[in-house]
Amino acid sequence: GLRARLNLGHTLAHAAEAASLWRLSHGQAVAAGLVAETELSLALGVLDEASRSLPGRLRTLMPRLGLPAAFPTLDRAQFRQALLRDKKARRGIVRVVLPVRPGKVLVRKVPLADLLSVV
Q1: Which pTM was predicted?
Q2: Residue 1 has what pLDDT?
Q3: Whether 67 contacts 31, CB under 8 Å
Q4: What does the alpha-carbon distance between residue 1 and residue 75 come to, in Å, rounded to a whole number?
Q5: Which residues contact 99 (CB under 8 A, 6 or more apart)?
């Protein structure tokens, strides 16, 4: 529902904030998380056909808004540990909000390796 839509981008963002030792602001982390989770949605075949250009459009839009389109270089082990500590993580599987198309999302359980592949 609405709460899930508001969490789009936040799963990876919260891990990035922790891995950066909070040098990355929440807004910066959510912007990069939104792009990464949209790329993950494309990679997993969740984005509908008409929305396949969405990750590229977001990568172009974020810098125009003064926001990052990707996470800075972060310690991978710290990032991984932060994801595993997430309240939505269980046994290496993390529940993530993924876009289907603008305005529509779904919550899906995603293996940690898939999450790390888009960061």
Answers
A1: 0.92
A2: 62
A3: yes
A4: 33
A5: 8, 37, 38, 41, 46, 47, 51, 54, 105
